[in-house]
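Forum: Protein Structure Q&A
Topic: Joint prediction for protein chains with partners

I've read a bunch of threads here and the consensus seems to be that you should model interacting components together rather than docking separate models afterwards. I'd like to see that in practice. Below is the full input, 426 residues plus whatever partners are listed. Could one of the regulars post the assembled result?
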Amino acid sequence: MRKVVRLSILGAGTVGGGVLTLLRENADLLEAQTGKRFEVRHVLVRDLSKPRAVAIPPKLLTTDPQRALCDPKVDVVLELMGGLEPARSLIRDALQAGKHVITANKLVMAVSGDELIRLAQQRGVRLLYEASVAGSLPILNALQGSLAGNRISRVVGIVNSTTNFVLREMERAVDAGEPAETAYDAALRKAQELGYAEADPSSDVEGYDAQYKTAILARLAFLQYVPLESIYREGITHLSGRDLLWAKRLNMGLKLLSISERLPDGRLCARVHPTLIPRDCPLYVVRGAFSGVWLQGNGFQEMSFHGFGAGARGTASAVVGDLIEIARHPRSLRIEDPSLRPGETAPMETLTMRYFVRLVTPDENALRALREPLQLLGAEFQPSETLDNGVEQVVLMPPLNEGEFRARLTALREQTGVAMQVIRLL
Ligand SMILES: NC(=O)c1ccc[n+]([C@@H]2O[C@H](COP(=O)([O-])OP(=O)(O)OC[C@H]3O[C@@H](n4cnc5c(N)ncnc54)[C@H](OP(=O)(O)O)[C@@H]3O)[C@@H](O)[C@H]2O)c1
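Posted by a regular:
Agreed with the consensus. Here's the joint model:
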């Protein structure tokens, strides 16, 4: 690779701005690390007149993707626009043109990662995407590098910092005696005011963002193609302040977890759902807008990563790390994909888990009618409580088959009309 590495940056928003800042602030360090200088030749944006947090010389700005991609002098294209299209096509075009690509785009890598990784290998260029999962936490590098000699058995992560912030805010609100019923809406509003959640927060709060990241993590941890549709997804929109209050009473934390694991029968199970975790779980301390990933493997046993992963500088740290890797090893081909084959995945209904069930009803007789069937399943009853909207009864269930337990609960709900909140335990 040449002494000067020339870059096209697609996108100058939060992450693009952060990358431009780090490239400037740390130029001497980057040169010391790689023996090369980095020169930005094009910055692709939608709107040339938009005010930018970072000063960008006007001659670098363009709205023409071809200008950014077809320049023969450009060595590396950094895709920091987001969304599926046109980002995916631009990555494809850049790889076809023989350019290395760095992306922070989990959606593209979850949906089309396999195709793009193969294309990069065919073209003899690098495609790196560390920033697409947990921002600055070097989890993808660890899985492909230092930890690659381990058989990974489980990856558990808090990979969406927006929902982690919302859950922490809900916990704070109920601790402060604010109404539990409105805790979710209030916490989401606060996350939006602080810029942690978007105006349309559905990708975060419905669990899609975590599902994309789970697909990427599971593929690298288990060297198996993991179709998005095979990853169970449940968001946090149905959670109430009462659930956070109970988590605290039970000495647990309530988190939106990404879980992928190899089951004893060899099948892979990948899922995203709210989960109650014990205090001694390494992810218990991951609070607010932080991310964390906890790994288990047959060599290192267990390891966790925890940090303020996202935002302009956090994400830029991972992008610039990828850039250094390319400058040092432009031709190194890691085993990222060729051996990946579709393997068997385990549907949720076949898993065995423990459950927290919160029953609420204005009708005490209905609650009494549930007692015996739940007892037969091994329920452990917590003291019931009278609320404004009825009586609340929490039960903890022993390990049960998900499919059978869900079917039983649906039948009991239909018989009694009792509202049921079900949360899985780790
Ligand atoms: N923000 C984070 O904390 C974070 C963390 C990890 C990963 N990521 C990922 O990083 C990527 C970028 O996120 P971001 O937060 O920086 O997004 P952002 O602030 O919305 O910035 C997107 C940038 O891309 C440009 N852009 C978007 N669509 C375009 C198009 N069709 N043509 C030309 N330019 C276009 C925008 O131009 P204008 O400025 O002219 O509108 C803007 O500069 C996403 O894949 C995201 O998932 C973000």
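Residues 106-123 form the longest helix (18 residues).
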